[in-house]
Write a sequence for this structure.
């Protein structure tokens, strides 16, 4: 009888119907990630550089994209002992912004159709351009702001005129 009592649970288990398999659960939909809108810098020091690179040859440094006319040219006019900075277009003045100061300069039309400003080689504004912290910018009404990395080429033009 003991055997029967012990076997009853096993017999009952064998006679019962198996439980249905669990229904598959659909995976949750992927989370929708909305990237934040890019923040447009308001401070000129935080804006990306204007596309391009510096190039130096024959006492002249140019900045701009390869294969296009330069956006900015710095030349040592050794005969007149002047550093000449020029940009495309006929503009009445140019604003130069460095980490030291911002200043407006009256511009003259060059023979090549570019606006230019001239500096004596010892002008402190040239040192401000050469030693500006990481960048300087040129702007004017009707000219898209040119944000330029302060690399060695402008300093080299300045030193060419000072020697």
């Amino acid at each position: 009888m003991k055997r029967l009592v012990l076997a009853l649970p096993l017999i009952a288990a064998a006679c019962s119907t198996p439980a249905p398999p669990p229904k598959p659960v659909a995976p949750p939909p992927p989370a929708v990630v909305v990237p934040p809108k890019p923040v447009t810098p308001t401070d000129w020091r935080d804006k990306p550089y204007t596309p391009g690179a510096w190039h130096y040859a024959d006492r002249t440094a140019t900045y701009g994209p390869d294969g296009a006319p330069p956006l900015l040219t710095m030349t040592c006019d050794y005969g007149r002992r002047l550093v000449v900075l020029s940009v495309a277009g006929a503009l009445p003045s140019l604003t130069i912004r460095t980490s030291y100061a911002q200043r407006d300069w009256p511009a003259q039309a060059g023979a090549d159709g570019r606006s230019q400003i001239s500096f004596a080689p010892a002008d402190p504004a040239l040192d401000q351009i050469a030693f500006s912290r990481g960048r300087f910018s040129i702007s004017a009404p009707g000219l898209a702001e040119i944000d330029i990395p302060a690399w060695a080429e402008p300093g080299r033009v300045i030193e060419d005129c000072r020697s």
Summary: The mean pLDDT is 87. The chain has three helices and ten strands. Strands lie at 53-57, 60-64, 72-77, 82-88, 93-97, 102-106, 108-109, 114-119, 135-140, 143-149.
